[in-house]
Amino acid sequence: MHTNPAAAEDGFETIYHIYNDGNYVGAVNEGEKVEELAAAKLALAEEDFTELDLEPDESFSMIAEQVFEPSENNEQEVLEKLDQELDIKAASFALTLDGEVIAQLKDRSAYDATIRELLLAYASPEELDQWEENKRTGNGLPELEAGQTQITAINIEDSISGTRDQADPETISTPEEAAEILLAAKDITVSVEKQQKEEENVKFETVEKEDKNLFIGESEVEQKGKDGEKQVLYKMIEKDGEQLEREAVGEAVTVEPVEKIVLNGTKELPSIGTGEFVWPAQGGYISSKKGPRWGKQHQGIDIAQPDDFAILASDHGVVKTAGMHNTFGNHVIIDHNNGFETIYAHLDSIDVKVGDKLTQGTKLGVMGTTGRSTGIHLHFEIHENGVNKDPLNYISE
Fold it and tell me: What are the G5 domain coordinates in residue numbering (predicted)?
C-alpha cells in the first residue's frame, strides 16, 4: 500500500485520495479509516493463508492532499467501494520459463526448492547433495569408492528464472507442484555429467610352456589362473535422463591377476611297449574269462560294469587297426612293437586312428556293445608273437 502523507498547514485540511488497480476510488478525510480497512481485510485473509506473507495489492495507494476548503465526500461510500475492490495478495516469487510466468511460489527459498525438485528427476538425492556441497565449499570432487557415482556438472539448458511478484494466495504453488508443472507442461532439457567408479575383473592370461618330461600331445596345468581386480573410472553424459556417452577415463589395478601356466609335452611318444600291461578299463570286473564258453573257445576276457566307460591303452604302441568288425564290432588293435598286440572290442566309439602312437593309459575309445555282444562290456585280448595269451597272466583286476 502506497501512502503520501502531508502535514496540515494553517488554514488547510488534509484529504486522502484512494487509487486501486489504476482507478480512482474516491477521497476520504481520515486516512486511518483506510488503513484500518486494509488491516482488517489482511487479518481475515491471514486466517486462511497462515504460511504466506500477505499484503494489499501493490496497485492500491493513498495520496494525501492539502486543501483550503475540502468538498463534501460521502466517505462511507468510498470505504465500502474500497472494501469491495481492494484485493489482498501474497508476496510471491514468480517462476518464469523462457520469459513466461508458469508458477507463483512463496519466496526465493521455495524457488530454490523447485529447482532442486526438478533436478531430482535426473539425479539421486545423494548425488545432488554432494554436487551442491561441492559448489558451496569449492573443495573439489571427493575420491570415489567402487560402486559410487557423483555429478560433476548439471545444467538446465532452458532459461529459468525467478522475480519478486504478487499473486492471489490461492495460486501459490508448492515446490513439488511447480516442478511438476515444469516437467509435465514444458519441454525442459537437463544435461548431467557424472563420474562413476566400478570394480571389474582383470582376466588372467594363459602362458604355454614346453616340458620335455611330458609326451607330445600331453599337457598339464602347472599353475591355475586367477582373475585380478581393477577399479575403472567412467565419465558419463546424460540428457533428459538418457545416457548419451559413457567412456573409461582411468583405471587402477587393485589385485594383480595370476597367469595360468600350461605345460605342453615335447617328449617323443614311445612306439615300443614296456611289456608290462595295465588294466584297460576304469574299474569294472571280469564277467567272462578266457577258455571254453558255450561250446566254443573264448579268446580273451570280458570286463563289465566299470566306474567310467573310457577304454585305455594297456601299454605303449601304435594303432594297427581301428574300425568295424563283424564279430568284434568297433575295435582297436595296438601293435606294441615288441612282439605283443592287444585287442579292444565291442566299443561304442573309437577315439584313435591307424598310425597313432599311444602311451600306456591313453583313452582310445568308449565301452559299448557293438558286434556280436550280449551287453555293454570290453572284450580284451593279448597276443605274443601271434599266439593268443591269457590276459590274466599279465593284468589283474
Answer: 188-268
Q: Are strands 54-56 and 23-28 parallel, antiparallel or unpaired?
A: unpaired
Reported pTM: 0.56
d(CA 214, CA 384): 29
**Would you call 208 exposed, middle or buried from its count of C-beta atoms within 10 A (0-12, 13-18, 19+)?**
exposed
105/98 Cα distance (integer angstroms): 17
Closest alpha carbon to 96 in 164, 162, 10: 162
On whether the CB atoms of residues 312 and 278 are closer than 8 A, the answer is yes
Return the pLDDT at 139: 77
Cell numbers that stand for 155 in this block: 545444467
3 state SS of 34:
helix
- pLDDT averaged over every residue in the chain: 91
> What local confidence, expressed as pLDDT, does residue 376 receive?
96
Cell match 557415482: residue?
149
Q: In this structure, how many other beta carbons lie within 10 angstroms of the beta carbon of residue 332?
A: 26
Beta carbons of 141 and 152 less than 8 angstroms apart: yes
What is the average pLDDT across 49-57?
Answer: 93
The predicted structure's pLDDT at residue 13: 87
Nearest Cα to Cα of residue 82 among 144, 36, 134: 36
- In the chain the domains, ranked by start, together with CATH numbers, are 2-86 (no CATH), 92-188 (no CATH), 199-267 (2.20.230.10), 281-393 (2.70.70.10)
Q: Cα torsion for 214, 215, 218, 220, to the nearest 10°? A: 0
SS3 state of residue 330: strand
Nearest to 2 by CA among 170, 17, 14: 17
**Confidence band of 3 (pLDDT split at 50, 70, 90):** low
